[in-house]
Design goal:
This protein has 137 residues and is mainly α. The chain contains 6 helices and 2 strands. The chain has a two-stranded parallel sheet. The longest helix has 23 residues.
Length: 137
Amino acid sequence: MLLPIIDMNPSDNTRMHSVLCFVESEAKLLNIDKACVAFDQPLWVEAVEIMQSTSMKVFCRLGGFHMIMSYIGSMRSVMAGLGLAEAGAVCYGSDTVTHMLFGKAISSALRGFFLVVGALSVFLLENLFIREPYARC
């Protein structure tokens, strides 16, 4: 069932508090101990701040797309200096690689990471399974 659009000023903090109160009351009606609600990143930050200042029984989680963006963006710092940018530059332009590592060009980043994983897997398997010729008896 689609719920009505909240016609309130986006910069007003009571808007988010009203949404969280509504979610909590609906969860109580359905006998749900702790409701889970997903937000995009800017709204998630606001919702988490409200949740930290109140004692509502609502779990706020980051939406799937923004979670992937955050994860891919974290790869930039985790893999810094290991050649990930240089590997991406083989297939993509330098500006695209920058956007990929900041978590903005999601489809290119996923394709690029799959290419890197594939190349590393081939390299690992070739070096792992090098066999010496069968010895003659």
